[in-house]
Queue: 4 jobs
Job 1
Amino acid sequence: MAAARTPVASGPAATPGPVLFARYAYPPNRLGLCGPDDAPGLLNGASEGADRQLRMLARGFEGAYPYLRLIADENDLADPLDARVVDAYWLGSPLTAAVRPRALHRDLVDRFRGRMATTDWRWLEAALAGGSRPVHAFHVLEIFPRIGLMRGGRPDPIVDTMDACRIRWGRILEVIGDRLVVKVRRLELVDGRLQLGPARTEEAAGWLGGGTTVLPGDWVSLHWSWACDRLTPSQVARLAGWTDLALASANRSL
């Protein structure tokens, strides 16, 4: 069977920052989980490259946008939607590592301290002292459970939700129209510790609209069962490394 092609986004060097942000932000937004109530605007804006519209929508993401602003400020970059900043937040990069723990601590105090129990805040502060940085995996694995979603005695559905929310990486096995069959490692809770299990096969939606194409063997980033971007091997290594760091931090404070 001849390999079909389906469009997804190109890498951060070629994709404008607002478009790259929208490609990652749209999958949960379409489910009503975060950001402004305008999923069609994100979808159309990303496909058409509507810079002004996407910038306005991005500011409505109360979870993600402050991290972008923090990464930009800490790296002396004027634009929170600079493609390098967006890439740093979703995948992790040297820009993420450059954020000072004190600056991240101030940001989290302002945004989340009042929503956490004292014990949870102490665990989070321990994670910050251990080297956590403002990458999306940190938010999913550390902030998400600390505001009440991990300690209700029902770990499996919660872990599944965290797995869907984190940025995953998968290798394409087959392209079927606008669907991708990918092999990806899933998040598991084993003996009280979070870890990545063996790779399994699942389906994801390919991004609809303009962009580059993907083929079997390519790597893609995944967010809520959507392929957000085609990844280079170095991007996969970065994402895997930052995910491992976030997992280690989360396990220290479970």
Job 2
Amino acid sequence: MDTLIAFRDLIDPGIIPRSVKKKVARLRPSSGSFYAFIGTRIDPATAGLTDAKIIHFEYTDVNRTFASIPARQQSDPFPYYFVTSPSLKDPDCRHAPDGCYLIEIISGLGYEHPFTPWSGSRSRERGREYFRLKNQIGMSLVRSAERYIPDLSISSHLDYVEFATPLSNEYWVNSFNGGNFGPEQAPDQFGPGRFVNCTAGIEGLFVVGAGAISAGVASCIVSGVWAANQAVELLG
């Protein structure tokens, strides 16, 4: 459960300490992402991919790269994205039929632009305009990745493609505004800006996940172990 949703929507405000209410009120959600999940007959290894991610930055200035994401026109190349292939990460797991491969392309894309009109709507019930917009952005992302996988956007090479937006995260994962990493990964939201000790001043309630120590798999695992140890002590 997203920390922001838990404290703003689920927990009785009457039992939340005032200091925690102030902290939650200050927390800013992280940005969302746009995803392309592709099934193709293009062998990613032949195209030059390995089991590692390719992370593309358009500019050597990282801040400039991320600042340019919301400013891009819908048909412009994405200035930041990463490309990965589950088929190469675990080739013995048969993620796809013989001769077919999976490729994932992911880039940052804010919730507020351009998906706000469909906020709160149900998945697969957002109408033609949303579907058109999602596919327009999605194909732009696929074409951007052709820098590393030539001809990927050719229809005969896209045996299957599914695009997902920040609204997908909001609906299916219940993340606040479709954010990827709980609270925004900003300096003022680390340490005392998060729930770094996995507690919130409410007996028996422990905070784990991206809103505790930090975002990322390792931090979330550590928060779970730490919270479990505290829960065991509480239970005696």
Job 3
Amino acid sequence: MKNINNISIKQFLQRKGIYPEKDYRYYGMYHCPYRKDRNASFKVDYQKNLWYDFGTNEGGTMADLFMHMENCSFPEAAAKLEKEYADKDLYSFSFHRDSISDQTGSKPLAIIVRNIIPITHPKLVTWVQERKIDLQLANKYCREIHYTNGNKDYFAVGFRNDKGGYELSSPPHFKGCVSPKEITTIRNNRDTCLIFEGFWDFLSYLTLQRIKKIRHDVAVLNSVANVQKAMDFLKSHGKIFTCLDNDEAGRKATELMKSACPSVNDRSAQYAGFKDLNEFLCQRPMIKQEATRKKYGLKP
């Protein structure tokens, strides 16, 4: 199997009738192939075979570009590209794992996804287990993301959003995002919608309910800053239950949703005393032990 990221981006675009507005020796400036772009702000580095969209501050590999253009997942992109170029000689350059830089080459501009696979790395498996989430459940909704930031390679648990970006989480406390930043929705055409601040809370809810597949609609904000982006989706539901963090930001986000949707029900009291639903899940064995001690008059 050939590395799909070794497919020449320049030749890929050319096969689709897309040519650079300005063509230089080492790179070309194009009109962005997946959005309206009057200024030809889409750069393709011919040597590194990487692209960068100055209009959205996004960039990546051949696979990333195909995912943007076709609005598909990485496995779908890989399958389509491998089939389309199985017998084509478009693997004509040496692919480097350098990060995308600005036109002066002075600094990295974006996180570049190198690979998306099921969660298998021992450190990430342990990270999932420490969060008290079953690995099979985590792999149903998340992936192991290998990426470059600057000149260093990293890996993290990734949760895909509605625009193809990924929320990243890795031990001990790293949080990041592969642009674009967006909410994640699960649409089951139900009148009831559950709202979570982050994907660990969503997985914690499934764990606490002992289910692997949600029956209701779901919106994972991926940040309380994304509340407004979720409003149209929320307003289409008759019953809305929020499970946001027990902090000032979570309370403000809940109140904002209540002001726009009278049917919002705040469920954060069910895990009062804990920062969020995942912390509640992780501390649950200790809670049960303490309840047993009190019941039988045992000293801790």
Job 4
Amino acid sequence: MPQSWLQLSIRAAKRDLEILSNYMIEQGSPGIVLKNGGVDAFFLSSRRDAALKSQVERFVSARTDKARLEWNIVQPEDWEHSWKRFIKPARIGRNFWVTPPWLKQPKFRRRRIITIEPGMAFGTGTHATTRSCIELLEIVAAKNTGNKWSVLDVGTGSGILAIAARILGATKIWAIDNDPVAVKVARDNLRFNGMGSAITLSGEKLGSIRRRFTVVIGNLTAETIIELAGTLQARVAGHGYLILSGILHSKSQNVLRRFAKSFFVLQRRRKREWIGLLLQRKS
């Protein structure tokens, strides 16, 4: 049976919106919409709704002044309509224009269009963490021009990073996610972009994969990256690359320390409070 969603609408001072958005993502919101003077966050409705509301309200009252909160239930049949009015085409990196399928595709000679259907739990890939991943992936692609290179996209979500990797020239791509909803959304997006057979997509667990890749991407959270650090780095080929994002600036040093022995830092990208890292294996 399709699940309902909790929609939290917060009206607050502009200076507080970023910290509120980051906190909602840390609490498990897969969808954030920033608006003029406010932010909307969406959560899958569950038995922990009361505890979530209490925790969020305590945080907001302690960190902001005069914020107004409103909770609503969004039924599954209303979800698509709720999202569509907020999503617009966006330029990402040097090579891409990302757009949902219901909008007319813009024409850009020097940019490739990626069509992303948000589905029930994902935006179109324009969040700062995804932007950093694509920009860092573009750097890796430039370093591998003329060579065959492979990609493992861990926690693929909408599939946008796997699609971008294919467009940038990766010859073998695996995309995995342990969320069945994500796998379904990603499969639809591969089809929208004509890549249904070009990318291996599955719900396989990272620990069950044995082959190594030129590039491993993890747009996750700092906590998950640290938890999976040993397995992530084991999947990177010699002198290969690790792209990490979804990391709050305050937690970036903890992540870097976990990989310092085997990797050196090629690039750091900061977008607001988020850090994206491009690491290369030392040997």
